[in-house]
Design a protein that fits this description.
With 726 residues, the chain is an alpha/beta fold. 55% of the residues lie in helices and 14% in strands. The strands form five sheets. A six-stranded mixed β-sheet has the order 10-11-12-8-13-14, sandwiched between helices. It folds into six domains: 160 residues, Orthogonal Bundle (MutS, DNA mismatch repair protein, Chain A, domain 3), CATH 1.10.1420.10; 102 residues, Orthogonal Bundle (MutS, DNA mismatch repair protein, Chain A, domain 3), CATH 1.10.1420; 222 residues, P-loop containing nucleotide triphosphate hydrolases (Rossmann fold); 70 residues, no CATH class; 44 residues, no CATH class; 49 residues, SH3 type barrels, CATH 2.30.30.30. Helix 3 packs across helix 11 and helix 4 crosses helix 11. It starts with 5 loop residues before the first helix and ends with a strand.
Length: 726
Amino acid sequence: MKKIASKTLEDLEFVTVLKQVAARCVTDNGKAAVLDVTPSVRRETVKRWLQETHEYLYSFSTEHSIPNHGFDAIEKDLQLLGIENSTLDKDSVRRLAGVVRSVNEHIRFFKKVQGVFPTLYYRTEQVPDNSYIPQAVDAIIDKFGEIKDDASVDLKNIRRGIAEIRGQLNGSFGAALSHYSQLDYLDDIRETVVDNRRVLAVKAMYRRKVKGRILGSSKTGSIAYIEPERVLMLSRKLDELELEEREEIMRILKLLTDSLRPFLEHFKECREYLTGTDVIAAKAKYARSMDAVLPLLVDHFEVELVNAFHPLLFLTNKERKEKTYPQSIQLSTEQRIIVISGPNAGGKSITLKTVGLLQVMIQSGMLIPVHEKSRVCIFEHILTDIGDNQSIDNHLSTYSYRLKNMRKFLNKANDKTLFLIDEFGTGSDPELGGALAESMLEEMHDRKAYGIITTHYTNLKMLANETAEMVNANMLFDSRTLEPIYQLQMGEAGSSFTFEVAQKNGIPYSLINKAKKKVERGKIRFDKSIAALQKERSDLRRNNESLREKETKAQQKATKLDDTQERIQQKLTDFQELYDGYQRFVQLGKKFDALALSFQNSKQKKKLIEELMKLVITENVKRLPPPKKEKPAAKKESLKQQQVEKEVINEVAKIRVEKKLTKQTVKQTAEVVKAEKPFKLNDRVRIIDSKSIGTIDSLERGKAVVNYGVFTTTISTDQLEHVQKK
């Protein structure tokens, strides 16, 4: 069966992750199970593990709280249960029943919420619900862990007898205590307990006068402890009953054990289920501690980690309240191998370990600290060569060990392999070692393997630059301070800044210049060109950041100014409306004041009412909404309508001439009708096209005085029309 090599897990410090997860388990079985977790290479298995952890993590943020899964160790109890004719004690029985109860509770819970936790519900379907075991145990043992009186008829009778004997014992002992106390045979303490029996504390001089059995004496010999004769027979009877009780309890427990023995495998299934649940819960708690998520698991071979953190480094820095820098990296069919270069202490090895550790965590069913848009796949082989693996015991140098490791790489590498190599090619002569490393990297490339390496070798950087599906990358450095930025930059090789770092650390310039002369000019120029590119990129990055900051500030200021301008404009509009309103009220007040003064002088009520009505009508006209302005499109439509109207007018002109005589005839007829209906006093009338109705108070020379209730007006009868009562 294919599995991830233990060497890989050791290089990536996966055991440390398992220990941190195990610390979050609540059972000893769960802790042991976590430490035995190994990555799987089967996609369906990994997918199920991840979904279980994801669902359990989701339960922490919902009202669906998963029931407790803790249980006491039952290994010894199961071993004893497996022995024929063995008998479990009451504590063992309670532990076994507790395991079954917990599983039953989980089965009922997940059955109710199977739509929320489908994968966890599927786990419960593999374990049958068993109600017999809890009922059988509850019938024998109470909630305090004691055998019930009604566990059997004989036990009930025995305990009733024990209670009666104890009552008689208390009475008899009390009588003896009172009797010998009156005779002053007892010491000040009067009584005590020896071998779980109540005895009299008799003064040594009177011990022969007290009938009973001597059970001991004080250290000084001044007190003799005597069980009174009156209670001796009752004590013997009590001992016999207690012995019968123990025998009956053993008989009951043996029968109960025999009834539970057929369920031995079921107990094991329940234990395994709760142990697995503890492992899942521990993974979910570990994920919650570092805000881990479930990335997208794809079928093809692709790894895209967005804002990925190294779990161990993240948790350590979290405790120290220090910042951890995330990395984003991608492996795909177009970009299968990444060659990371750059100076030491820039984060190359951490980036390499982050990718490897997150991959083995995913294949172990653990959520990882990345952005939720990340994508992962399942590799059949994960090969690593990280750190100095010099072996004194095996007489292997670092380079010999690495060559041996490379041989394993070549035996296993294929298109389903992920390889991670730190400081590729080091440990030997740079020229020869670099050439061999280049050949091995070409071989891994030809085998379609996926991988990430870190190196300082120029020939490997050039190979990545010239080979398809292989790409350079570098860890960014500040070109001025030579301080690491801990950010991976894809597409360009990184300079090692060998001479720059040496100069910064105080190495004399003359010595550095001498070293430069010993190196081939081509290599220096190549490294210098890379360093210059990185410096330019660093300057561009700073300039871009500065420009972005300025742009953001400018946008904020512009937005703020626009808001301020809108508020000021609104306030001006409000003040103008308020001022216009005040002016209108002032003018209106002046008019009312003039009317009041005129009425005071003339005392003409009728005139005052007319002026008031005119003023009211004028104000109402002012309140009418202004006519809507025509839009350009509306104007075009208006022009078209005018043209049509002209044509219609020309056509209708003839019809009007023909109908002219008809209209005159109708008008004459209307006058005749109107003449036939003359106006009279008290007629209800109104002005033509008006709504106000009044009555005629007087008629004189074609004019009528119309009374509207609050005022009267004089108007020509030609402008009036009758109003019929409803």
